[in-house]
Description:
single chain; alpha/beta; GMP Synthetase, Chain A, domain 3; Rossmann fold; Helicase, Ruva Protein, domain 3; 4 domains; five-stranded parallel beta sheet; three-stranded mixed beta sheet; 8 strands; 9% strand; globular; binds adenosine-5'-diphosphate; binds magnesium ion
Amino acid sequence: xxxxxxxxxxxxxxxxxxxxxxxxxxxxxxxxxxxxxxxxxxxxxxxxxxxxxxxxxxxxxxxxxxxxxxxxxxxxxxxxxxxxxxxxxxxxxxxxxxxxxxxxxxxxxxxxxxxxxxxxxxxxxxxxxxxxxxxxxxxxxxxxxxxxxxxxxxxxxxxxxxxxxxxxxxxxxxxxxxxxxxxxxxxxxxxxxxxxxxxxxxxxxxxxxxxxxxxxxxxxxxxxxxxxxxxxxxxxxxxxxxxxxxxxxxxxxxxxxxxxxxxxxxxxxxxxxxxxxxxxxxxxxxxxxxxxxxxxxxxxxxxxxxxxxxxxxxxxxxxxxxxxxxxxxxxxxxxxxxxxxxxxxxxxxxxxxxxxxxxxxxxxxxxxxxxxxxxxxxxxxxxxxxxxxxxxxxxxxxxxxxxxxxxxxxxxxxxxxxxxxxxxxxxxxxxxxxxxxxxxxxxxxxxxxxxxxxxxxxxxxxxxxxxxxxxxxxx
Length: 475
Ligand code: ADP
Ligand code: MG
């Protein structure tokens, strides 16, 4: 096996960084940064500007140094930064996908982890197709060929194929929901690839991009060009619709976009972290429409599927692993395909750098800290619970902890108290304390009320499941 380049080491660092921060942060700070060199125990990182340098210096130098040490065995004595443009690469399609326009999408955030050995992207593809993918905002990696089907996603997968075969007819809209890192974006974009091949006009956006485009268009008095962009497609793919919550103007615009496309039998596919009914601060008429077609969920893959996913990814990367190693990794990572990929990249980087064959012992050594950091991420803390509840109900943490007795606050407040009880086993006085200094009897009352309501209220049960899932999804 060949020595990995500094670029590959940087990719391992990216993999780690992705796990510890939000996508927005990750994109902002890492998109144009790279390892410039390593000499005399000094690691030099190239950054695009002074802001980025300051951020790295204050927030991430130590981590970079540690990860570099873990992967290469060399411990940098110093991490330095120079302001320099990232060198151009000779793979135009991948570079093009990293252009600024596309960097706001999760797809392009995931892009830096692509390995040079990733065979899927090496397929020769004709340039008209490339151009169309680029214009549509699609990541070349996210196609059906590279998507592994298991029990946890077979319904969503089948529904996506139905939309490909009969766009605008079979299921319109198609609404796919599920937790973070489970393949929603991948599947959504796979539909886009197929319909581009069929000569259709495709547009992929995150709901944040839709929102930003809309706000900008209104600001610059260009509402018409916004409308003509979004209303003249054969397939509109909207990722992470939950982020449209609370944005009334955007929702209104989306409502009209949706109706116009739907009336013209154009296919709409939407993803979300939760089912339509559990969406808060989203107009009722939109929620109704989300349920017009097909709603399909993606759940967490079971152990066998996780092993199969890992195995397939190993083959794609031409980096075979023994079954016992696959099982070891899949047993320790149980809720997220993105983390499975992260683990694989980590072990691959290590073995290539040290020119070693992967073994169970090496895997255990290399992944020890990785597993620990995932566990720490997944651990419920009072703060995470409170934030998750506030987030789910689209209210401020300060209102949740405050004294207002408004109905839309009292319910979520009781739910937060109940979750503090069952997730971190907090005592009633501690719950009262966490929840803005309330009395322990208030906490007791809240917990018994929710327990009682849960016996009959299925909607509440569903909401609690969604919130619990979001507590362990920290991206
Ligand atoms: P989500 O949008 O649900 O957060 P993504 O689609 O971004 O998840 O998936 C996270 C990563 O895991 C991506 O790199 C994706 O390619 C990979 N992935 C997820 N599910 C599968 C699958 N069933 N087969 C192959 N890769 C998958
Ligand atoms: Mg996604």
